[in-house]
Amino acid sequence: MSSSNYRNNKAMIDKFRKELMAELGEIKDIDRKIMTRAVNDGLARIKKNTPVGLHPNPVTFTVKNGKEAGTVVSFKVSNQRTGGFLRESWRKTPTVKATDGTQAELTNTADYASFWNDGHRIVTKIGGPTKGFVKGTHELEKTVSYVNKRMVSLFKAEIERIDKKYDK
After folding, report:
1. What does the domain layout of the chain look like in residue ranges?
2. SS3 letters for 41-73?
3. pTM to 2 decimal places
């Protein structure tokens, strides 16, 4: 009778250990999985919110200064272009384990990305006086906030999924 209890107990303990190790294996990689997914969602969001310049053909504008001020100027361009360089320049770095957790970064390689995000002053000529200021969009900061919220919701969903899987 005692050997039967021993075998039953050993079998239950072995089963428990096996399930626990499987659950720990899933939990171990959860941070990297969630970080990657949240930052990829943030990348899609910021690309969607980054404008693409549409350059009309013909190009028309009104002269604002000089002896021709008020004159409407119009001309056709031979190769009409559509912008999109700023949008195409968004990248996500690979998700890596760091000493203080897991990290991934959103970057933009366009040289004018900081001016679009943070704003910039307006000058009429190099070294000239400031004529005004263009407010930044602050999309990067908005996206970081979105990614942080997304990580929380993804983490909760993943923990619930693991709990359901192992709590039968």
Report:
1. 14-166
2. HHHHHHHHHCCCCECCCCEEEECCCCCCCCCEE
3. 0.70
